[in-house]
């Protein structure tokens, strides 16, 4: 299925230069070359410039019946605020699998001579691998965090295009989300100033022959109301009222506006203060765009038809009588689908070593499930074919990210992973073993940069629980220790031993940040063996047909909790969603990633605590209920000196500078 | 320079089908074929799918020294609220020039036989023509107005891509505009909670060696402050304060947030009501994205370097001491440029008959200048070459649109038009002659659809004033009467006679809506002759070096006003901008398009009125002062039954349905 043509040999420099400098030092392949390696012909994709292409959904129909490759998910231990290199490991692993492993002979080719041969001799059949990652939000790129394309010699390139507009998917989500928001407030406004009859006449105006009719989307609304009549003139006055007056309860509206900017001053606002809005003010707010339910829909949808249905059934709040109001009730489900019709196609890019990447969707890992799209994974699995690999990343620690990957994403996709990688660092393990607090922007304590095996060993309880939780899904678990230059051999061995003792299939040390794919060859081999030797079936943590509370409690137990405590508000919401018929959805916990528990300061593997559920919300279009464990910020802010100070365009070359 | 290869012969149907049905009935040429006709090679553009490409700015450098083609601007008489077909005429004229006129022999080829020959015989050398139009806002597409791709058999295709995301330029503007907005409020917040020293330490933190430094954008801020020191440690405490504390007066902030959605509830809002914002609430609001100053910058910029400068010097308000605060003072000018780096490349599309179109920028014709970009026009003029045509549209009536085209756009570009088209309809002329009010959505009065030469003749005073105003710029004026099926021969002749009497170079009847380019062949010939026979130099209505008030008064006289009246607020602003050194900017009047005067009900050619200036604002980055004549809405709303009710995706074909 593949040849060696697009492999790029990296000239590695030490110490590792800045990410943008590495990214800019490489001339990417034209994306049509990457596509060709995947056996995609030009009618399978749309180019977006020279280094990005959208792979078109009909590819899936064409490949129906073809066999899938291996499916690998990369999660992590409970991280420090600095991040433990999950994206970097995902990319590095793929560079190793795709640029260093010989598919046929199952040997690896890591010395320069062998690599040179690859360029001369097409008989070496490299393994086909696709990396599936989320599109990062543009907000943090200009704020504190910087970009999200991996790092060092394991990156997705062009790094600036990856971190900025990409192919416009997040912009499409912003537009769709806010069109729905505008539709809600304007509808309330028009209903407040018009009689039932006037509303009805405006919604179903007579044509030139004086005949009224329902348009397509109105039949969806009628169905939700339980009205099966097809002609406007047949509706009773009571039905006219039900049809024309949604009677939205302003206090029940859960739909907020979004923006892909860190704009903290929009977290809570009052709208409708213009004189023409006649005093219909309302408190609401903006979230960052990736927190939109539409992003979660994009990540979980499986086809255009499925997306149309999901967008139409998104619930924005209730009527005053307590019935859910959907996007289709507002007449806007079709328009939202039109705005999202190109966004459903994943974007093809490449790693530094020329292996293919599908970038698609970026649901917030807080209040959504934090995994890239089902559509991209499905396409990728067909494209790599048997013996090939699709590696995808799950956001946050494995307690949230991998759990949601399994119980939400795989449940909806029907796909079955063979292997789960858990990324660990000595730094984070030391923190879990009792090391001092790690704070972004402050120098690390001495204990983190000098040998301290005791701290590491103590911290392995965190890793061990992630391993046993992940193993319970029926996959083989491979631990990847993302090595830093300050790490000590005995520390690394301690982790390896602890991982194997906790049931990991293998545990390997990686240096892909410093060396690219070459630094993750051992990981690649371990992952390949893990995939080839999977013995169990996928098992979910909970079935869908138990109550909302039972599902929450099953997840809480996996955190180590001995019980769950619901606020009055949470009880009320659970009761309402159950009454509205939404109790059969999977659960998407909104919890801190900095601890197994709800309390970020509880490191290691806490147990015996009571998990408090503050509130419960629903993303009915995306298809999950999300309990809030504590308060989740859905709109980041800017610091005094945001990243944007350093970002500029070199107008002589057109290159971006200062992006980190 | 061109061959006949990409000409498409239309099969015209009567009565004219719906716009989307005509658009969908044609399979567009791959955009690379259109590009090839313009002698563009693949490295000159980036594909965005199959039917759109961004023409890259370096093309301009490559073509430097090449001769320009003819430059034609299309304006209109004072319109009815229904619009008089200015875009449709722009497209139809180009279809006529590009698909029907033989460049060499100056004959037109309108019968079927001749057209068939074109397909067989490449010896016919068709004239090269490029249409330059604005990108429409997505808001109205889902609101009342519907799309803006022209209409009938004179359209830009694919019509759905034109009306929706296109290549993301408006989304880039939204992102850049709102990043600046977030930077403003967050800066005020951080200044309110930190000492001068703390602010300075955060802005210029020490590196690992303990050394502080200014980043590039800070030197721009220092320059604005008149500080020429280059090392942070050399600043006096007074200079540290000046540097670190912008001291923005919240009441002076003119920078608003934007969204490309008709969301009336965002017109006036209160932000900062979250508990973490500590009570720093402020009243502000959202405009529609095309009203952003960044859109005006995009339209008026001439290069990447120029755009960087303009974005950096945009003024967002004043310090409490009354000094202007710019985007660069906030450190964000470079990041804005990075967000806009792809948007500066115009998007190549095609007309129904396969002639090339450059879509670029869409500045609001209310508070900005309402003309497509300088960059697109410049590229197009080089690409068509001598004897070729670039036809561009100016928004609103010629009193605003053509006036701003000449005095703002041409002044900044240095380009010189040879011909100005003025589009008129019998309907609008009857209104100016005293016909009853024309209201969108209500049936037209009888007098508009039956012969009434007297009304038409009376209404020609409006046309006559537009002709004489436009002629004064030194261009030849061609009147295009956009014919409706209800128009009468004697009415049409009356307009022709009146136009010639008022000094028009020619006046012709067009049926391009019903017949495509074939229906505008006479207009094409008239425009060609007008371009070839221009005898005068371009003259501006006012020089830049007179006072703001003198410039406003010169424009007011062109409206027929006998004087200008300034509100107290307007006087204050004029005084401030003059003091800040901004009085040498051109003037961009924000006035209703429905009358020469400020009063939309005054039809025909009113005179002797006093023009009231309510307020005066400035777009310093774009480069104009804009006086507000009355109240301009910068955020449209949605009606009870918005267009979105009919818009959906046919998920079996992927086609958009219901777009109008």
Automatic annotation (TrEMBL), chains A, B:
Pathway given in the UniProt record: One-carbon metabolism; tetrahydrofolate interconversion
Annotated coiled-coil segments of the chain: none
Key words of the record: ATP-binding, Ligase, Nucleotide-binding, One-carbon metabolism
EC number: 6.3.4.3
One GO MF term: methylenetetrahydrofolate dehydrogenase (NADP+) activity
Gene3D superfamilies named among the record's database cross-references: 1.10.8.770, Formyltetrahydrofolate synthetase, domain 3 (3.10.410.10), P-loop containing nucleotide triphosphate hydrolases (3.40.50.300)
GO CC annotation: cytoplasm
Biological-process GO terms, alphabetical: tetrahydrofolate interconversion
A Pfam family this chain is assigned to: FTHFS
Signal sequence residues: none
Subunit description: Homodimer.
Family from the record: Belongs to the formate--tetrahydrofolate ligase family.
UniProt name for this protein: Formate--tetrahydrofolate ligase
Taxonomic placement: Eukaryota, Viridiplantae, Streptophyta, Embryophyta, Tracheophyta
